[in-house]
Amino acid sequence: MGVTQNDKTIVLNTASGASAEVYLYGATVTSWKSGGKERLFVSSTSALDGSKPIRGGIPVVFPIFGPPPSSPPEYAALSQHGFARTQTWTLDKIVMDRPEGVSIRLAAPPPPSSFQHKYTLAYVITLTEHQLSTDIHITNTGSEDFIFQTLLHNYLAVPDSTKIKIKGIAEGTTYKDKVLGGKLDKWDGSTLTIDREVDRVYQKVPSQEIEVDDGAGSGFKVRFRGFEDCTIWNPTETTGSKIADMEDKGWEKYVCIEPGYVREFKTLPAGEEFIGAQVITVA
Ligand code: TA6
């Protein structure tokens, strides 16, 4: 029961049998079990030794999303998806430890020396019987505006990604299609399926809620607050087979429904806090 820590991971358990495992490396949630089933996908060929970001679970993306921008220089020098997913975080405190729910707060170390911005980055992970909530807290502790992008890159486990249905994106929602070179389009309001490679950023999703019907009688509801955008990604064989640490046919076993603030940089004035929350419920 409760919270167990070793030098690499923290495990949360509820009395109902739900559990979650979190690597201090990247504050990456690598397992979430609810109703006796694993709900997150981690590639069996992923490194777990801190040599590379973990391929699966819920990597934390910060302070940039995707490839680095051309400016400002200290952002241009960053690696894809930023450094939070490759930093070693620490357990700051146990927020709640009750039979029905367990919650911990992790703190990120200071940024690399090349990234001279003053902020604090914390991550609160809360587990209950059917729900996993993960909230990012970014506070600008400097005296100037701080700009960033952030996203929670969940890999939700599904039995067969070609059979899932993704609902909840309203007609008229603008999306950027990265498969089509970043083309902007308006969503037609239909149900999205993975019948080819999908890599899209839906911008300012009005419902802040997306449902995944896994085509096998279960699924997920992903709700978000603070975050306004949602990236939906499945590489299919087209790109999945080229990802070095992706297990064979791994792309058939997950879909990413990633709440974030990524359509542009978020500007956080000095002294202010940004909270981005994702709540994933088993349907
Ligand atoms: O969130 C979708 C995405 O940005 C895709 O474009 C794809 O490259 C994916 O993330 C994985 O990125 P990674 O750096 O983990 O290989």
* Average predicted confidence as pLDDT: 97
How much of the sequence lies in strands comes to: over 45%
Distance between the termini: 24 Å
Shape: globular
Unreliable segments of 5+ consecutive residues: none
- What is the helix fraction of residues, given as a range? under 10%
Q: What CATH first level would be assigned?
A: Mainly Beta
Sheet having the most strands: 8 strands, antiparallel
What CATH architecture would you give? Distorted Sandwich
Order of helices and strands: EEEEEEHEEEEEEEEEEEEEHEE
Total beta strands: 21
Indicate the multimeric state.
Answer: single chain
In short:
The protein is mainly beta and 283 residues long.
Secondary structure topology:
Blueprint: E1 2-5, E2 9-13, E3 19-23, E4 28-34, E5 37-38, E6 60-61, H1 73-76, E7 90-98, E8 101-107, E9 119-128, E10 131-140, E11 146-152, E12 156-157, E13 165-167, E14 174-177, E15 183-186, E16 198-202, E17 209-213, E18 219-225, E19 229-234, H2 236-240, E20 254-268, E21 273-282
Antiparallel strand pairs: 1-2, 2-3, 3-4, 4-5, 6-11, 7-8, 8-9, 9-10, 10-21, 11-20, 12-20, 13-17, 14-15, 14-16, 16-19, 17-18, 18-21, 19-20
